[in-house]
Amino acid sequence: MKARQLKRRELRHYILGALLCSLIAAPVFAHHILGRPSYNLDEESNTPPSMQVETQIGQFYVTYQVFPAFPQPGQPGRINLYASRIADGKPFDGVVRFSARDDRWFAPPSEPLGEQPIDDGVYRQGFVFKQTGDYIVSAHFDYDHEPYDIDFPLTVGKPFPVGPIGFFVGAITLLLVGVNVVQRRRLLRDKIRAEHAGLRS
What we know:
By secondary structure, the protein is α+β, with helices and mostly antiparallel strands. It has two domains: 2-26 and 162-200; 34-156, Immunoglobulin-like (Sandwich). It has two helices and nine strands. The chain has helices at residues 2-25, 164-200; strands at residues 34-36, 51-57, 60-67, 76-85, 95-102, 111-117, 123-128, 133-143, 146-156. Strand 5 (95-102) and strand 6 form a beta hairpin.
C-alpha cells in the first residue's frame, strides 16, 4: 500500500511539473502582418477566393471573400467585404477597420491591417503575412451607435500538422509513459528484494 501511495504521489508531481514546464516554454512569436492599401492591389477577377462566407449580424447581411485561393507567406492577398442592411438592402457606407491575429494560445495581440472606405459597394483590404500559419482576421465597424465585429479564419501557406500545443501534449504523454515504466520496474525490484529477504529469513 505504501509503495502504491508513493507511486501515485510521484506521478502527480511529474504531471504537475511537466504541465508547468510546457506552459513556461510555450513560444510566442509575432508574425509581422502587413496591411496594404486597396489601391495598391492587382485585380484578381479570374482567381477564385479561398472562402466565401455569408452571415447575418445585427441589422446587416455580411459577405466576405479572401483572394487568392491559397495565400502564401510573403505574397500579397486581398479581403473583400460586403455589408448590406437587412431592412432595405442598402450597403453600409462608413469605414471598416481590419485587423489580424495569430490563431493559437499565447498569441500576441491583434495587429491592424488598415481602415477602408467603401469602394463601389465593397470594402477591399490588402494583406501580406510574413509567416505560414493559421490566423483570425477581424473586420469592425459601427452603425447606429452599435459595434459590429466579424471574425473569420485564414490559413496562410501549409502550417505544420502538429502545432506547439500538439508538440507539448505529445511530450507530456511520452514523459508520463516513461515515468510509468520506471515506476513499474522499481516496484518489481522492490517486490523481488522483499521476496528474497523473506526467503533468507
